[in-house]
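A quick word before the example. In earlier lectures we treated sequence and structure as two separate objects. From today on, think of them as two lines of the same record. Here is Immunoglobulin I-set domain-containing protein written that way.
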Amino acid sequence: MKNDEPVHPDEKMDLRADHNLIISQARLADSGNYTCVASNIVARRRSAQAVVVVVVNGGWSLWTEWSACNVPCGRGIQKRSRTCTNPAPLNGGAFCEGMSVQKITCNALCPIDGGWDEWSEWSTCTSQCERQRSRECNSPAPRHRGRMCEGNSQAAENCTHGLCAQGMESSNDVALYSGLGAGIIAVAILVVAVMLYRKNHSEYGVDVIDSSALSGGFQSFNFKTTRQVCGGEHLTLTIEGSTALHWSTARSKKEMTTANLRTPRLEQLRDFKEKAGGQGV
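And the structure line, produced from the sequence above:
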């Protein structure tokens, strides 16, 4: 029995027929108090206790990774370690032999902070009256975990002292083209209006625009059309109560609106009536 419990033999523990227990390869789990018990219907006998102590010598674990260099810049030390825990020594077993810590020298590269190069020349002024310049962080460039340059890599400012002539010319060109466009549109509208006016008044057979034969102050007169039995039409002109007739070949049924013309002189009015009478009305 082991610790007052029945022993279960296995491949490394053999229970012989002569009641001897043979442990071929001791294991830590085999440690304990062993006794032999014999019994019959008359009596029960127990042997003296045998203490089995399994001695375990220590064994090293695996090495750890190398540590970082212990200095940020220059010559330093790196190390790694292991422990005597695979297994740990038990029951008077021997401790692990050898070093638990290894050290090597290291050389850490010193960080180099970046520095600004000289500013470039100012660019030409843009149409927005702005110029730019730039610089690079390469004097020196940051290395070995060094810090980047502080500040802006580009600068911009408004152009002053007449340096923005390009923008001024552009503004003048815009104003010039806008004025030309507006002038062309105005002329086109005027031409169209004159043509429509002349077209509308030419339907009556009288050039109302050409009034160079009349002079003096303006008086109101009316144009209207009446139908003749001969199939033609004639134009009735009323000026200050007098009526004059003028033959027209246009077959218009429209009534012209009242317009203001200068009062004709007597001889001009007489000539107008003679011409009207000569048309056979």
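Notice the following. The radius of gyration is 64 Å. We will return to this example when we discuss secondary structure assignment.
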